[in-house]
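dude i think i finally got it to work??
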Amino acid sequence: MIRLVGSALVVVACAGMGFAIARGYRERPRQLQHLMEALRLLKVEIEFTATPLPQALRRVAERSTDPIRGLFAATADALARPGVTVAEAWMAGYEQVRRRSYLVPADLEVLVSFARTLGTSDSVHQIQHVDATLAQLEGLWREAAALQERYAKLAQYVGVLGGLFVVILLN
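look at this
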């Protein structure tokens, strides 16, 4: 009886690890899509409504989902403090999204490079920077979607079958 319960726990634990890995493959494209949508909203705020950057960031945060909401909300909050540059404020938001997302270092590097250009030029050039960032994120999204299609189910199967393999070895 104890052996059966132990075997079940091993299979469940290994399956859980496989499903956790698969979740990362599924969440990354979704979060990249949400990030691109948020940047498109920011572009609209800059281009058509000429909203000041702190207010534009706050509006984008209100319309975004977590963890992308944290990026824009923390950036807007940091900009409200005196003496904080836009790049420093963006990096404060970056820390929020880095800890709570499934984005990989390549995705995060795009955000860091965007921070270097945000708020440094007029609205026309700012829109060009947003468009360039969106193009980079689009390529990363395609890559993430391909990885999801290829590896998400595989990770689940490997988790379950790995657990069964360990149980067979132990018995």
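The chain has a mean pLDDT of 90.
im so relieved honestly
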